[in-house]
Amino acid sequence: MALVPESTASASSTASTLVITKPSGVAVGDVLVASLSCFLGTTTTLAGWSLVKNQACTNGSVNVQTRVATSADVSASDYTFAFSAGNLNSGGIVRVSG
Fold first, then answer.
1. Statement: residue 32 has pLDDT above 90
2. How far apart, in whole angstroms, are the C-alpha atoms of residue 25 and residue 40?
C-alpha cells in the first residue's frame, strides 16, 4: 500500500510558540509529519512526537518531527510547538495515510 498525503495545515509566528491547526480528517494510525523552521533559534521536540532531523544553520534551524495519530490526535484541535526565540518561526503538518 502506498503512502498518500491527505491534508495539510501551516502557520507562522513571531512568538516563541507556534500553533498549527490539526490537518483535517486525522484518524487513528495516520502519520503526522511536522516541518518547522526557526530564524535565529532552535525548535523543541513536542512531547509524543519523534525527532527525525534537526539541522542547525547559520541563521537558525530546520526541524522535522513525526507522530502516529492516536485517539488524542483525533480529538485535538491544534498542536503548539516551542522555539528558543520569538523570531520568524513557521511550520506545517502533513497528514499521511496508507
1. yes
2. 34
pLDDT average, residue stretch 1-6: 79
Count, residues in the chain:
98
Stretch 61-83: mean pLDDT, rounded?
94
CA–CA distance, 84 with 95 (Å, rounded to integer):
26
In the chain, helix, strand, coil percent, each to 5? 5, 60, 35
Which residue blocks in 1-98 are alpha helix, DSSP H?
71-75
CA–CA separation, 36 and 52 (whole Å): 12
- By CB atoms closer than 10 A (0-12, 13-18, 19+), residue 98 is exposed
In terms of Cα–Cα distance, which of 86, 82, 90, 29 is closest to 62?
Answer: 90
